Amino acid sequence: MSLLEIAGLETFYGASQALFSVELDVAEGEVVALMGRNGMGKTTTIRSILALNPARSGTIHFAGRETQAMRPHRIARLGIGLVPEGRRCFPNLTVAENLSAAARPGRWSLAEINGLFPRLAERRDQMARTLSGGEQQMLAIGRALMTNPRLLILDEATEGLAPVIRHDIWTVIRTLKAEGQSILIVDKTLAELLPSTDRCFVLEKGTTVWTGRPADLTPELQDRYLGV
Amino acid sequence: MTISRETAINVTLALILLAMPFLALQLGKPFYVTLATRMAILGLAAVGLNLALGLGGLVSFGHAAFFGVGGYAAGILASHAFAGQPLNLGLFALPGTNQMLVVWSVAVLAGGLLAAAIGVISLRTSGVYFIMITLAFAQMTYYFAISWPAYGGEDGLSITIRNVVPGINTLIPINYFLVCYALLLTALLIFALIRGSRFGAALQASRQNKLRVASIGIAPFRIGLVAFIISGMITALSGALYADLNRFVSPSMLSWHMSGELIIIVVLGGVGRLWGPVAGAMLFVVFEFVLGGLTERWQFFLGLALLAVVLFARGGLVGFLAGRMRHG
């Protein structure tokens, strides 16, 4: 059975409809890419999953539970770890506080995160706002992992980072995949994304228009749905 | 290990406040002992507010409610003890008491219950609505006290003899100062422990962004409510001390002026700083006493000082002296 299953999702921002019919599912241990051009509804879908922008209709099941009526922190507690777009750390807390505030027991502890991102260990007492962009991204990923999520959601985790840092983050993502971590990932660098994913969902104007394995996403399809 | 500048300032403040009454006695000016006690008590009240305001970002304009409820707890229990009549609570009767330890417990409990009731409703709002709704609740308690003739109504309630602590003669001003000072230090310790805990981190995170906190699986409402309750308890305790200091409680302890003064104290001293509220209370009392002796309009100058702090020293007195908060 799927870990996350979304059917017929419709979400509005006030009067304007952002999602029309999103279909998406992630199986246990699977890495799924959510793709599409800017403004097609990728981030809105993620926000709807966590009820940060509750969906108006459609169904969301996570870990066997229907989650639309639940409040965000309840849904997160079922086991969703979000790395939000634009690395939203808590700037007024130290690195260690950012991590420990999120902690729930499981495989990932402070020591494990420090092992995964040695730079965070070096900066543990520094305020998050003083970190570089790449370090903040590491912190955001670390914070999400500290909740020991069943599903990790990465929204544009490598956007706007230096190539070296991107490389590091992709290495971490592949490590997590190898461990069997379920991941839902939004990213624009297809060269890195496609080899790491099991399945892809493509959104266009708030609707799921294509689903398949990355190998089947031909250059024509890429051009049709993702090209600028 | 090097001592940070803020720690040095905190220790200095602690020593100045502790030394003040002893120096006053040496100089033969016992009145200053009362001033120092006033500083410690108002500092304690502001430490309570600082927990909600400084860590949680909950701008409560109703902390006078907790301050006053603590005061009335002391006054009511003492008056019943003095009259030898038990306090009829409907279901059961509670004997009056002049024991401070009991008074404090009742004050803290009452403050906590009131904070829970006010918090459950107020914390569903934020921003200016939170400010207004906490103000509204505090004004309700104010008018309730005014219209309750059994305990003095508008005239307030006198405490004939200051309540007692076993083994300490609280009638001697310096002893009472030390009692208040010890409670202030205890509250500061609690504040420091909370700030350093996971709960404290989550509280400060929720000040920054509630949705982001929710998305890591923490209920911001519950965190805020717990902080608000602890905050109300500390402020209620200080209210009980304040009533015993003046041996008098009146509805003015519950009025919005009091809430405003507590906010001013926290802002003057440094929002979110451990010793900020104490620094603010010391400054406030000095203003009140020195300028209040020169002119009735001393609050004009307090306003100027507040303006200066808000414009030029956002970290308050402690922030101004210690620099920005918590470098790595």
Automatic annotation (TrEMBL), chain A:
Residues 4-228 form the ABC transporter domain. CDD domains: ABC_TM1139_LivF_branched (cd03224). This is Branched-chain amino acid transport system ATP-binding protein. Gene3D superfamilies: P-loop containing nucleotide triphosphate hydrolases (3.40.50.300). The keyword Transport applies. GO terms for molecular function: ATP binding; ATP hydrolysis activity; branched-chain amino acid transmembrane transporter activity. Keywords: Amino-acid transport, ATP-binding, Nucleotide-binding, Transport. The lineage of its organism: Bacteria, Pseudomonadati, Pseudomonadota, Alphaproteobacteria, Hyphomicrobiales. GO terms for biological process: L-amino acid transport. InterPro entries: AAA+_ATPase, ABC_transporter-like_ATP-bd, ABC_transporter-like_CS, BCAA_Transport_ATP-bd_LivF, P-loop_NTPase. Coiled coil: none annotated. It comes from the Bacteria. The keyword Transmembrane does not apply. Belongs to the ABC transporter superfamily.
From TrEMBL, chain B:
It is a multi-pass membrane protein. Its main location: membrane. Keywords: Cell membrane, Membrane, Transmembrane, Transmembrane helix. One of its GO terms (molecular function) is branched-chain amino acid transmembrane transporter activity. One of its GO terms (cellular component) is plasma membrane. The keyword Repeat does not apply. It is found in: Cell membrane. The chain crosses the membrane at residues 7-25, 31-52, 64-82, 102-121, 128-151, 171-194, 215-242, 300-322. The keyword Transmembrane applies. It comes from the Bacteria. This is Branched-chain amino acid transport system permease protein. It comes from Mesorhizobium tianshanense. The lineage of its organism: Bacteria, Pseudomonadati, Pseudomonadota, Alphaproteobacteria, Hyphomicrobiales.
